[in-house]
Each structure stands twice: as structure tokens, then as C-alpha cells.
Amino acid sequence: MTRKEIPIFDANSTMFQNIGLLKVAETATRQHGDIVAIRVSDTRDLYIAGSPECFHYWRGHQGHFQTDLGDIASNQAITRMLLGDELQDPRWSDVWVLTANRMSAIARDFDGWLETALADATRTLIAELPQDGTAADLRDICRDWSIRAVCPAIFGADLDVAEIAQGVADVEGFYFAMSTKDAAETADHETLAEFKAARGFLDKAITTALRNSTPSDPNLIAQIATVIPQDVSEADRLNLLRPTVGHVITEKLNIGGLSLLWTLVQLAQDPQLAADISAECHGNDPLTMRDADSPLALSSVKEGLRLFPELPFIYRITSEEVPIGDYVIPSGATVVFAPWLVHRDPRFWESPKRFQGDRFLDEAQHRAHYYPFGVGARIRSRANFMLHQLTLAARSICAAHSLALSPDCPRGNIRPLLRSALIPRGVVPVVFAPRDASAMAADDQSFADATQ
Questions:
Q1: How many domains does one find in the chain?
Q2: Which residue range is the domain that position 360 belongs to?
Q3: Tens digits of per-residue pLDDT, 17-30?
Q4: Residues of the signal sequence (predicted)?
Q5: Strand 422-424 relative to strand 416-418: parallel, antiparallel, unpaired?
Q6: Are 352 and 29 in contact (CB under 8 A)?
Q7: This prediction's pTM
Q8: Residue 355 backbone dihedrals phi, psi, to 5 degrees
């Protein structure tokens, strides 16, 4: 069978570099189809894979793709640089086994600590919302919630949320620097100011947790530290703990609470949907009810992740020639799988750019073209965890408060900007108002009428 030549979209200009990959990818695939090579420089092409067929091939042939991007810094490579790989050193093999066994032994307890942290974080979020009609910046609210919902289970309850928030920003800054600087600038990454800030945050947070914890404390660091031999030096102990702690943070933390932010932005523009979510919580504690018992809240969260996926673009390198449809992507090519494109494609979604909170009440019809976290077994674990986190928070907020975008919110601020994740372009002021009993009763009746 004759294969077609992959079309090329030339984005090697100041104009296209300024408008960013979101618009470039949309323009390129609109002009040339689902598979297109975007020329970003004289020596580099990115192959956009913007259809469910591409994802299905990836899922079934993951050995044909690698995450190590060679001269291009991949997230996996950057993570190794930041966390170190001391635990993989053969001289620490016994400690590696002890650490892995301890992680398995406390897995159920750790899940419980995370659930407690999530409930406490959500209570704190709701308690700290302004009660006087003053607008609050949703970026700050969601960022602090995301830290409180995970970090106590890792570092212990004695947290300085502002310090952790700055540290997480420093980590993001290192990833951004490594993915945007040229090879000469990043050749000695440990000399970069961004690396020093990110590594310094992690080491300080782990060291503080070690000093403030006892072996019986319900947090990850306290428990993993119990299996590291006492004669291991403080510096080695830190190097051995950092990879485990860092990977757990990567798996569990929704950076900046951005997935919650984008869902709340939509709910703040649809008061009836927020009221209906409140009504489905009637008679239940939203902090303890099953996610299946708040299907509209769960559907709204999934819809938020459709429009604003956690990973809008996912980079891989082909390890051999990859045949997809009528094309063959060459070996050694940088492939960009694009949930951002698939999730907004009118071939697969009705009114794709419109937020419809009830879209995922019938979930089965969307599974084939929905990839907010990517694909793979490990991805499913993170997806389940994040969906529960976000659903619990969204329904709890809606049950306690109505919410509306402030009239002063510039509309451009709630258009996404791609950095390492999708961020708002500026402040997102939202006004929260406690739901009174009469309003909740009216919401309940409206919801009951709508579901008859």
C-alpha cells in the first residue's frame, strides 16, 4: 500500500512562535488534517497526532514510543535531574527493597491520609471564602486547596502553605527552563538558578518533615524514613528519600489546582448547573458521599477536563517507523499527541467548545476520544485519584455556596495560556455567596423537576 507524504505546516516564524502551540496546532490540523508535521525550526519538526486513531495506536504499541526525548528535555528526564537517582545505585539496593516494601505496606493507610487531607483542605477552602460579597482570586483558592489536599499526607500536618506554593512554583520554573532553554544552557543543569531553587525547596521540605516527625506519625516521609538504616548520613538519607517523595508528589498533586480552577470557572458562569449540583447533595455530607451519588458533579469535572485537559499535548519519540492511517511517521521523530485537539473536534463532540455539565452522564459514548491524562495503566490510577479529588471539592463548594465571575473579570483572563499546563492569563475574580435554606429548597425542587 502506498503511503501518503505527511504534510508540513511551516511555523518557523516570529508570528507563529508568538501565538503559541495551542493555536498553531489548531491551524495546522485545520489546514492539513489529523497528522501534520509542524516545522518549528530549520532542523526540527513536531509531528502532531490529533485523532483518536493516533491514541489507539499509541495505547496498543507503547513500545514504539519512548519518553526520553534525546536532545529535547522530556518531563521524565527533567524529573530524573531534579530528584536524582541515588536510590537506583547498586550500593543502595537493600534500601530500595526496604523502601518499596514499606510503600506497599502503608498503601492503604496512605490512601486514608490523603482522604483526610482532602476533606480538611476542602473544609478550609469553604471556611476561608469571603462572606461579604468581596471577589476572591480563584487562582489562589485552588492553588492552596491543591497543596492542603495532598501535602499533609506526605510531609505532615505542620505546613507553611505559602512556602510550599512558592516551592511548587520553583519546580515548575525548572521544568519550564529545561524545556525552553537550548542544549548549551542546560548542559550543566545543576548550575541553573532554577535547578537550585527547585532542589532547595524539595530538600528543605523533606528535611523539615524528618525533623518534625516521629516514626508513628501518619505521613509518608515519617514512615519511609523508618526503614532507612540509622547509620546512613543525613545527606544520603535525603538523596534516598527525594526520588520517592518527588514521584509521589508528581502523581498526586494537581499543580496549582488548575483542574479545579477551570471547572469552577465554568460553574461560575452557569448558576443553574451549580444549583443542580448542590441539590444532588441534599441530605448527604458532600465530603463523605460516594462520587457515584453525585453524577452531575462528576460529569461537570470530566467536562472541565475535556475542555482543559491536564496534559493538552504529550510528547513522545518514535523508536521505529510508525504507520498510522495513510501515513508513516519516521523513526526518531518527535510526536505530539494532542488531547487538546481531540477533545474539541466536532467530529466526536456535539458543540465541542461549549461547556455542558451533563455531557458525561452517559459516559460510554465518549470513552474512545477522551484522554485528559494520557493513556496507560499508571495513568488510570492518577485519573481515578484526580477525578475523586475534583468531584468532592466541586460538589462541596456548590453545596455550600453559589458562585459567579466578578463583573470586573476581564474575559481574556479566562482564556487558557499554555505553559507546562493550561493557566489563566490573569486574575480570576469570583464572588461566592453562602446558600441559604430557602434558596437550597428552591434548588432541590428545580433539580427534582428537571430529573422527573
A1: 1
A2: 1-97+312-370
A3: 778 899 999 999 99
A4: none
A5: antiparallel
A6: no
A7: 0.93
A8: -75, 120
